[in-house]
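Recall that a protein's primary structure is simply its ordered list of amino acids. Everything else, from secondary elements to tertiary packing, is in principle encoded there. The following example makes that idea concrete.
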Amino acid sequence: MNLGELPMILFTVITQLCVGMFVVLGAVQTIGATKYSAKAVDRLADPALFAIGPAMVLGLIASMFHMNDVMHVFNVFRHVGSSWLSREIVFGIGFAALGFLFCVLQVLKIGSVRLRQAVAVLTALLGIGLIVSQAQIYYSLVTVPAWSTWATWVQFFGTALLLGSLAVGAAFVMIIANRDRRIAKMSEAEIAELDDPRAEMPLGQKIRNFFTDKYLVDSATRTEVDGLLTGTVRAIVAVAIVTAGVLLIAMPMYVSSLASMGQPGIESAAHYATGFAVLRFGLLVVGALVLGLAAFFFAGAVPKQLRTLSFILVSGFILVLIGEFMGRTLFYEVMNRVGV
């Protein structure tokens, strides 16, 4: 592997993961609100927001090391009108900033619901713009035939949807498992007196209660959250399985098309005939398809099989994440130029 491309491997995969998570969370909140109370939806979705921010910051930091001088990052604002690279950084910073703002507004319930929805939609659009910019950077390089193809778009958006879905699913089961552990440690008197008077709480108490999960103890809300978890995990796993299937079909088609691009294409295709490539797709099959089907089955047994479901989803996400990093490594390895 060319270690010089490591910052871009980290940046593209991590940022696409973050965008995918945000979009999937938005879908969960929108669709979930049609069947469950806002309280139940928020208690499942809100904590997952905290995983996006640190990951996005890590990705942006990694991208800076791709530049010979980190201070060059400030030059990107001078070429937004003509450079997809500049647009990529601007969209990335905008997505991170608005994502942080939405997290604060949503968790502390600041502003109206419509205001928070508007911020969420704008954040999602910036995230999609980020992935479009990333894909266009490589697709527009006609001197690299292996990049200037439809497969670049499939890989980038496939990574976002696949990792975003599995990450949200894993986060959800971990959130509920943590909730159940905390409630198990509380006495009956503590459970009885701790309802959810959030609208009357001072800000400091809201923040403390959010991070301790102690205000979500009433059985009606817990039943709703468990029902939402079951439906959400199954939908998320279905999306991940379909996305993995598309990638497994598209990539062989892409490799076959490389052979028609002359010697540079043949040399690029050779990278997909290695054990490294076989392992990459093996992780995709096991993580997304095999463990995904298992998670779909065990989701119907929440909360009795919550520990098993947590293990399956977290393991599947880790395997697929490793596979996507390997896939992005292959993406950079196939760079063979033609012409000057």
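The first helix runs from residue 6 to 32. The two ends are 24 Å apart (CA to CA).
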